[in-house]
Amino acid sequence: MIQKRYADDELLSLSGIQHFSFCKRQWALIHIERQWEDNLRTTEGHFLHERVDDPYFTESRGDVVISRAFPLVSYALGFYGVADVIEYTRSKEGIALPGHEGLWTIRPIEYKRGRPKVDERDEVQLCAQAMCLEEMFGVEIRSADFYYHEIRRRVPLDLTDALRNHVCALSEEMHDLFRKEKTPAAEKSRACRLCSLVDLCVPKLTTKRRSVRRYVRNHVRDACEGDL
Hints:
- By secondary structure, this protein is an alpha/beta fold.
- It is built from seven helices and seven strands; from the N terminus they run βαααββββαββααα.
- The chain is globular.
């Protein structure tokens, strides 16, 4: 049995682990400082998920049942979120599924706008989803799938022990930073040009170790005082 480590008010958004893996500062700007700005990629991603995430849609295809926008929670990882698609397949090695006869295995499927990434930000998000399902259903899930809209096909993901351990380590660090309300310093890289928050990040603040929120507040205050 997985020990409950986090309370309801300590749960973090599961989708944030993708931001955290890509850039810890980006994650903190979104989830700690509540900054957000859409670019073309995030807008296209929202549109794609609006078409996929219909919580009232369940589809049966013989020995396969599809459930969309399935709510997730893990008190071991401290995450809550939504799985795009859960695919249940009839199997003697599965579990009971309410409203359906027989036993069924569980396979999460995550929809993505583009194509497979060179880093592991997508992998940790899907692995975290699978770990939530394992905790909720008391099952073991050894693989999952991405569906990349740009290449229009599934890409399987093996949920290895190394990947699971990495998810756990990221979760620990995310909760630690969130409790401390700490925004990490910026680390400039080629990936910055793809970031939807590039104009809000303000890397020059890093050397002064101030938050964007404090910078904006002081900037507005100075401007108001200048008008007096």
